[in-house]
TrEMBL record:
It comes from Palleronia pelagia. Residues 98-122 are annotated as: Disordered. Located at the top of the head of the 30S subunit, it contacts several helices of the 16S rRNA. In the 70S ribosome it contacts the 23S rRNA (bridge B1a) and protein L5 of the 50S subunit (bridge B1b), connecting the 2 subunits; these bridges are implicated in subunit movement. Contacts the tRNAs in the A and P-sites. Part of the 30S ribosomal subunit. Forms a loose heterodimer with protein S19. Forms two bridges to the 50S subunit in the 70S ribosome. Transmembrane segments: none annotated. HAMAP family: Ribosomal_uS13. This is Small ribosomal subunit protein uS13. The gene is rpsM.
């Protein structure tokens, strides 16, 4: 089992698909990595030699922010918005939708389950 960026990748899958198991690498980034390192996109991960896996690992370390670093960077950006007190930061702080969605009826994923209001029944 290949281990890249702290993630155990599935060996039976094709290389671009296996690389998408790393947080921060999607299908297009995985295809770019395969092209840059010179690996066939139809090859399976268990068919690669150790040198190929090392090439992939080094390329990802040089050119991409992945896994823990990416999560930390995202959390720091959200914390910065909250500290600034801007509108987006306030929405994050109140656990409401940030990007302009309506909240009168929808937004249950973000707001959580509906809470009953006492004395509302007529």
């Amino acid at each position: 089992m290949a281990r890249i960026a702290g993630v155990n990748l599935p060996t039976a899958k094709r290389v671009p698909v296996a690389l998408t198991y790393i947080t921060g690498i999607g299908p297009s980034s995985a295809a770019t990595i395969c092209d840059a390192v010179g690996i066939d996109k139809t090859a399976r991960l268990n068919e690669l030699s150790d040198t190929d896996v090392v090439k992939i690992r080094e390329y990802i370390d040089e050119n991409f922010t992945v896994e823990g670093d990416l999560r930390r960077e995202t959390q720091m950006n959200i914390k910065r918005l909250m500290d600034l007190g801007c509108y987006r930061g306030l929405r994050h702080r109140r656990n409401l939708p940030v990007r302009g969605q309506r909240t009168h009826t929808n937004a249950r994923t973000r707001k959580g389950p509906a809470k009953a209001i006492a004395g509302k029944k007529k």
